[in-house]
Specification:
The protein is mainly β. The chain is about 0% helix and about 50% strand. Strands 20, 21, 22, 23, 24, 25, 26 and 27 form an eight-stranded antiparallel sheet that branches.
């Protein structure tokens, strides 16, 4: 799922089903595309006009009208689309798949392909799309400072079987990464060094989102609760009002005040107070 900077325009997908969009902050939803696909990742421009959708069978779709209509970009040579990300206008688009990075400078019309055998999995980008960060299997990090034109790969102190999600501030200076089973990690130097946040606890972290400063962070657990941090990941609070569920994804607005989260075989949940309280919609 994804939303614009105010979480007014939202997009979400059903596994083996349709894409749904909302233009009122998740109160009402509309079915926008009737395709039998397992949707794996969504991205949105800052104003919610442009959107990107990827599926587990490697297809990519883009929209220029807040998800009213969708353009098929065909099946990418990734085997599957793991994650998508884009800049504030969704002109620069990046995609990860099985052993591949794909980057586009024309809203997904054409892609440059780079191969890497040890991943990648999660993916995030700076607001201008120049910085791309992708944790790899075994704890390494792939990073590009030029919109995917070149990549550097380096090992660090992080290691767990599977990275699941990564998010960063508007410049991708401050970064937060999750996976499981393990702890949450944060970086204050564009991924050069990382801090293991023991206060988060070792859990099956599944997804993470943060505001434009990466001060407010919301992270979800597969088979657990939603957790929030207001100090860039130094301390964490378990939000039991969300309920213990198989949480799949979370997205938030530019201040991480409004947020939307999805649970497996469950409803979508909305929060209007930085993840403290949650209300179910679209069950």
């Amino acid at each position: 799922m994804a939303c614009d900077s105010t979480c007014t325009n939202m997009v979400a997908g059903v596994s083996g089903g349709d894409i749904f969009t909302s233009q009122d902050g998740g109160v009402t939803w509309n079915r926008k595309i009737n395709l039998s696909k397992s949707w794996s990742s969504f991205s949105s421009s800052l104003d919610g006009t442009k959107m990107v959708a990827g599926s587990t069978d490697g297809y990519l779709y883009t929209s220029n009208d807040s998800g009213v209509t969708w353009i098929s970009r065909g099946q990418l040579p990734t085997g599957a689309v793991y994650y998508t990300t884009c800049d504030t206008t969704c002109t620069k688009v990046a995609v990860t798949g099985y052993g591949t990075f794909l980057t586009s400078n024309n809203s997904g019309a054409n892609f440059k392909i780079d191969y890497y055998t040890n991943g990648p999995f999660a993916l995030t980008s700076s607001a201008d799309g120049n910085v791309l960060m992708a944790p790899l299997h075994g704890g390494a990090i792939a990073r590009s400072l030029d919109s995917g034109l070149t990549w550097d790969y380096y090992q660090n102190n992080m290691s767990w079987p599977s990275w699941q999600s990564v998010a960063c501030d508007s410049s991708c200076t401050k970064v937060v990464a999750v996976g499981g089973p393990g702890y949450i990690y944060t970086s204050n130097d564009t991924g050069a060094t990382w801090i293991q946040r023991n206060n988060s606890g070792s859990r099956n972290w599944n997804f993470v989102a943060c505001d434009t400063t990466c001060s407010k962070i919301i992270a979800v657990v597969n088979g657990g609760y939603i957790y929030t941090s207001n100090d860039s990941g130094v301390t964490w609070t378990e939000q039991t009002s969300s309920g213990s569920r198989s949480w799949l994804a979370v997205a938030c607005d530019s201040t991480c005040t409004k947020a939307v989260a999805a649970a497996q075989n469950d409803a979508l949940y909305l929060s209007h107070n930085s993840g403290v309280n949650w209300t179910s919609y679209l069950g």
